[in-house]
Amino acid sequence: xxxxxxxxxxxxxxxxxxxxxxxxxxxxxxxxxxxxxxxxxxxxxxxxxxxxxxxxxxxxxxxxxxxxxxxxxxxxxxxxxxxxxxxxxxxxxxxxxxxxxxxxxxxxxxxxxxxxxxxxxxxxxxxxxxxxxxxxxxxxxxxxxxxxxxxxxxxxxxxxxxxxxxxxxxxxxxxxxxxxxxxxxxxxxxxxxxxxxxxxxxxxxxxxxxxxxxxxxxxxxxxxxxxxxxxxxxxxxxxxxxxxxxxxxxxxxxxxxxxxxxxx
DNA sequence: ATGGTTGGGGTCCAA
Length: 264
Description:
Elements: E1 2-9, H1 17-27, E2 31-35, H2 46-51, E3 56-60, E4 68-72, E5 78-80, E6 92-97, E7 100-106, H3 120-139, E8 146-151, H4 164-167, H5 175-187, E9 191-192, E10 207-208, H6 215-218, E11 221-222, E12 225-229, E13 237-242, E14 258-263
Parallel strand pairs: 1-2, 7-8
Antiparallel strand pairs: 1-14, 2-4, 3-4, 5-6, 6-7, 8-12, 9-12, 10-11, 13-14
Helix pairs in contact: 3-5
The structure holds one DNA strand.
């Protein structure tokens, strides 16, 4: 049997619930992880998802900003969340499904100025990454079957951005962030499940700004959304994909879903 | 160097 998991920064789940339903109908992953749901839990459209078979949920939202959710067709046997940086800003949940612990993260975007002295949002982003790294080092072992997904708001590789040279000083691709993301990746010996199938020399994006006249033609994308797995799951990797055409759907998010399939 | 667009909540902030 196989396990398919998708991650998607939906940029308001209430505004885009029809888009979510279309994606689930077409792709039918076993688990969908969302970020930037922008919905308090009491207003989350759970009924529409239950109708499609996603009856097991772990959601954590707030008014207006952030918010993460795990929606599953398979039972959730354990769940929880962490508050890195102590802000209660709804950037992490986890759920155990089929004996695999799935972590869903929304890393702070970090503002515009890549200097923690001048920009508190960038300082928050760096602190969040440091605390995430420390948490996995202290609380989990790399031998545990785990999946980490989410909008990590960092494009680590040269070909995860449209122009490595031009983006070296742009928040999401600066060396200090990429270095810290590498430390998070080392914390549980995480393996990039998407680059597993796509050579590092090939351009690969999951996000295109709203601020381009024609996102498809200019193609100035970045790979901000990721799926990582721990080593015990690596031999079980079957496929990975980034759903680029969804960026062109009506009322599109600026991010598209990323999907990985494992045999379990 | 600048500005471009979108969402949410409310006449501006975050991305």
